[in-house]
Amino acid sequence: MKGAEEIKRLDMVKLLNLWYGMDFEKVGNGNGNGNSYRSHSVFTGERNPSFFVRCVAGHWLFKDFSSGYGGSLIDFVQIKENLESVSQALHYITEQLEDAAHLSKPWQCARVRAATRSYDLEKIYNIIKKNDIVASTVYLNRRRIGRELIDYLVKDKLLLNNRPGQGQASYCCFVVRNSEAKLCCLDNHEIGGSRKFVLGNKHAFTLDYKMLCGNQATTLFVTEGIIDYLSIKELEGKGIAGLALLGNSNDIKPTLLRGVKTIISALDNDRGGKEGTKRLQKLYPDKQIIIYPLKGAKDPNQLLLRRY
């Protein structure tokens, strides 16, 4: 496991772009401490970017003025992933670095010439879409996602299997597109493990664009992940519209909410989920916000699993 000092020297601009889809722009002329980079916060919904990163004396630091959070990459990951301790954050970061090592390296602190992705998302998609997806369908079945939903994902080519390299773990990979069918990101879940990573720019996932874009949905549920989204579909029926936010960023396109009167928060039953629900209430005061009854489960998928 990497040490705290080593991790603080890793390039946060590249890592936050790779792991969380954050797009940065360089701001200011820089000084002896280097340049600053600005992005939109992943902790709150905001119109103007107020999340800043810079390398100071060899250490990368962030400050999010919209949420008040700040610190190193370790602090960011601990908050974003709702981890209880610094050691858990260090372990999580180490695993993510091992998973992504084949995509972009080195990670050491440097004055990057441009804060852009170092991989071609379409190229990666075109490679992994050729893989056999049986392992991913079996994985979803074990998570108690029904055959009808799995078949729908397969038919619309939204389910892939990502095998990054020889001897590495296999990942259930969801293809995330926007309402115009443009590829936004690939959401990867380790099969037989707990690792996750996102390639591309994080974007909400849904199978319900027809209902939402046509203003046919008056009720909308939101979850933090795609498997939780599919779990709510299994629990409540496929006729209810929903969004998986890929975290609890509350990044919902306004046009999708035009007909929505009630938002059901099915975010995780933890600190991050509760904060996410509060942000929903703050962002959408004109809508009724209801908390989905998880009945002691940590998330919708665990609730679904308990039914079997």
If you had to describe this structure to a student in words, what would you say it looks like?
The strands form 3 sheets. The protein has a 5-stranded antiparallel beta sheet with strand order 1-2-3-4-5, covered by helices on one side. It is of the alpha+beta class and 308 residues long. Residues 101-116 have low confidence and may be disordered. It starts with a helix and ends with a helix. The longest helix is centred in the N-terminal third of the chain and has 15 residues, at 86-100. It has 3 domains: 4-118, Alpha-Beta Complex (DNA Primase, Chain A); 120-203, no CATH class; 204-308, Dna Topoisomerase Vi A Subunit, Chain: A, domain 2. The protein is built from 11 helices and 13 strands. The relative contact order is 0.11. The chain has helices spanning 4-8, 12-20, 73-80, 86-100, 121-128, 134-142, 147-155, 209-213, 226-236, 271-283, 300-305; strands at residues 25-31, 34-39, 51-56, 59-64, 70-71, 159-162, 171-177, 183-190, 196-200, 219-223, 241-244, 262-265, 288-291.
